[in-house]
Amino acid sequence: MNTAPTSLRELALLFLRLGTTAFGGPAAHIALLEEEVVRRRGWLTQQRFLDLLSATNLIPGPNSTELAIYIGYERRGWAGLLVAGTCFILPAMLIVMAFAWAYVRFGTLPARPWPACSTV
């Protein structure tokens, strides 16, 4: 396990990337989190990751987000919690806001003025 301190920048970049590119819901997020923090970076052991995953399954809410937040906490304390959580949630929030804006702006077609029909 890698016990060297993790920079807040490294946490931010990882969780921004995962929050932006990880589509498929919590199952996909969890698989990518495991790949990044257990296998690639060695921030957590496999057993610790599974323990955290089990704990997040017991509490209400999106377990992948809770897992990301706790990984940030494990690596850098409260600052890491805030950075990881914000960076993981922010991309999806902005994408949904952009779709909502586009729907409100372009969701209906402008009424086309039809020529009056004459019955004469």
TrEMBL record:
Its main location: membrane. It is a multi-pass membrane protein. InterPro entries: Chromate_transpt. It comes from the Bacteria. The keyword Nucleotide-binding does not apply. The chain crosses the membrane at residues 78-104. One of its GO terms (molecular function) is chromate transmembrane transporter activity. It is found in: Cell membrane. This is Chromate transporter. The lineage of its organism: Bacteria, Pseudomonadati, Bacteroidota, Cytophagia, Cytophagales.
